[in-house]
Amino acid sequence: MESFEPVVELDVREDLRLKKEPFDKIMGTVKSLEKGQAFVLHAPFNPVPLHAVLKRKGFTHDAVKIERKHWKVTYIKKEETAK
Questions:
Q1: 3-state DSSP call for residue 50?
Q2: Selection from 68, 22, 61, 28 nearest residue 45 by Cα
Q3: Is residue 71 part of a domain?
Q4: What is the DSSP secondary-structure string of 8-26?
Q5: Residues in Cβ contact with 60 at an 8 Å cutoff, skipping those fewer than 6 apart
Q6: Count of domains in the chain?
Q7: For 36-75, what is each residue's pLDDT tens digit?
Q8: What distance in Å separates the CA atoms of residue 39 and residue 53, rounded to the nearest whole number?
Q9: In the predicted model, what is the mean pLDDT of the chain?
Q10: Nearest-CA neighbor of 3 among 36, 50, 27, 49?
Q11: What is the span of the domain harbouring residue 32?
């Protein structure tokens, strides 16, 4: 069985500082997640529009303001219910 880190972290603060749009990088990271992995995003603000996008993909989130320009958001994919 393959082992993987239970948490994948991505820091987009530098991308945004350089005026680079990090959405594709974020979505690529989300697509690469294995079942059960959490995704931690570091951003200079609370990325509210991203919460809505990932909620539609089945993720819950917990956003914490670390300092003035540093938010840490943890996204966790909800367990899919059997139908």
A1: helix
A2: 68
A3: yes
A4: EEEE-HHHHHTT---HHHH
A5: 75, 76, 78
A6: 1
A7: 789 999 999 999 999 999 999 999 999 999 999 999 999 9
A8: 14
A9: 90
A10: 36
A11: 7-77
